[in-house]
Amino acid sequence: MSILDTAKESFQSLMEKNSKLTITIIVMMVFLFVSAFVIVFIQASKAPQKRKPVNLPPAGTFTAVEELLPPDSLTLTEDYYFSRTHSRTWSEDETERYFTQPEEESLKVLSQANDKLIKRLEEAAP
Known about the structure:
With 126 residues, the protein is mainly alpha-helical. Helices cover 56% and strands 0% of the residues.
């Protein structure tokens, strides 16, 4: 019992010397305990949310209805390249084939958006 008596005496002397600090610590611990209890109670009382059932196809093995047919020949279209050299500019043929001139309305909308962005940047500058 000497250990308990020593601990009790130490606690009492601490209470006598630092009563405000001790009371503050005890109040904080009680508050944290009550808060934790309330949070656990609220979480436990919530009804579990119903999940939407997932419609999965029935499990089974694949059975082919018809025989799989391979393609007649292994031809590649002319647009398909295994590898090609990259140039910094397009040729006239590539320009005619891939480039489309933007519409005037799209350019106006883009210009207005850029002007707004520039105005906001200028206003934010010191």
